[in-house]
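Researcher: I'd like a structural prediction for the single chain below. Treat it as a standalone chain; there are no partners to consider.
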Amino acid sequence: MKLTVSDLDLFAGMPRDCSEPIFQEPWEAQLFAMVVYLHEKGIFTWQEWTERLSRVTHRAQAAGDSDFGDTYYRHWLTAFEDLIAEKGLTPLSDLASRKKEWRQAYLATPHGEPVELRSGD
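Model: Treating it as a single chain, here is the predicted structure.
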């Protein structure tokens, strides 16, 4: 299943302008592209993705997330990480370690400089 703009109806609640998705940060667009790419490669079905995203969103709402559009892609990220771990692409522990490495690299980078994750970081 190759997704088109008309398929965005599958993303109920997605921030968008008319039929185009709206991304507040570059990572949101990158995450969106990764989800679509892995789906197109057959890593997971679209039904698996939407069910996972729905569970994550409902769990966050039950915990008090009022989501005015500012947390939508955080739900995507959580669902994506859970799903790729479940599919055996990478363990959640590796994702947590990598996030920590990126955070440390970010904090060590002077303002205005590009953040680089070097070998051994």
